[in-house]
């Protein structure tokens, strides 16, 4: 049964990652001035794009944190660092576009693409920085 000897570790890291992703979504939708879930339910593509890209931007460094973690606690700490970085990216883009949330609420794709691209770029750089 050596084939599944790593299953407990897999389950532990996967559960930690699911918890961190859920926390990330909760924090992100609370931090933004627009209501992503209501907008997405109403068919707002800009909200779906910006939230989806942000989620991928978070998952990239989270996956690196899992890969490099020495323990579950180490993984969680770096997952939280990645969360903070993504929230900071949102606020930085909001400084550049003070009406960002209004524009996303109005389904303006250019604002959503900029926010999504910034989230992805930040996630890539954040992931590379976690190559400790």
Report on the architecture of this protein:
Helix 3 runs antiparallel to helix 4 (72-96). With 132 residues, the protein is mainly α. It has helices at residues 7-31, 36-41, 45-68, 72-96, 100-105, 109-129. The longest helix is centred in the first third of the chain and has 25 residues, at 7-31. The protein is built from six helices and no strands. The mean pLDDT is 95.
Task: Give a quick set of tags describing it.
132 residues, single chain, elongated, 6 helices, mainly alpha
Ordered list of secondary-structure elements with their pairings:
Layout: H1 7-31, H2 36-41, H3 45-68, H4 72-96, H5 100-105, H6 109-129
Helix pairs in contact: 1-3, 1-4, 3-4, 3-6, 4-6
> How many strands in all?
0
- N-to-C CA distance: 32 Å
Element-by-element helix/strand order = HHHHHH
The average pLDDT is: 95
Overall 3D shape: elongated
Helicity level:
over 70%
Major sheet: none
Low-confidence stretches: none
Structural class: mainly alpha
Strand content: under 5%
Count of helical segments? 6
Rg, Cα atoms, Å = 16 Å
């Amino acid at each position: 049964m050596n084939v599944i000897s790593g299953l407990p570790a897999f389950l532990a890291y996967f559960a930690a990652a699911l918890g961190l992703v859920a926390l990330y979504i909760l924090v992100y939708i609370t931090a933004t001035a627009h209501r992503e879930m209501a907008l997405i339910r109403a068919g707002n593509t800009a909200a779906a794009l910006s939230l989806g890209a942000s989620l991928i931007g978070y998952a990239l460094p989270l996956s690196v944190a899992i890969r490099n973690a020495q323990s579950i606690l180490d993984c969680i700490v770096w997952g939280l660092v990645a969360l903070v970085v993504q929230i900071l990216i949102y606020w930085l883009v909001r400084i550049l576009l003070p009406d960002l949330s209004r524009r996303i609420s109005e389904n303006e794709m250019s604002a959503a693409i900029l926010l999504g691209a910034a989230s992805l770029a930040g996630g890539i750089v954040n992931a590379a920085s976690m190559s400790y």
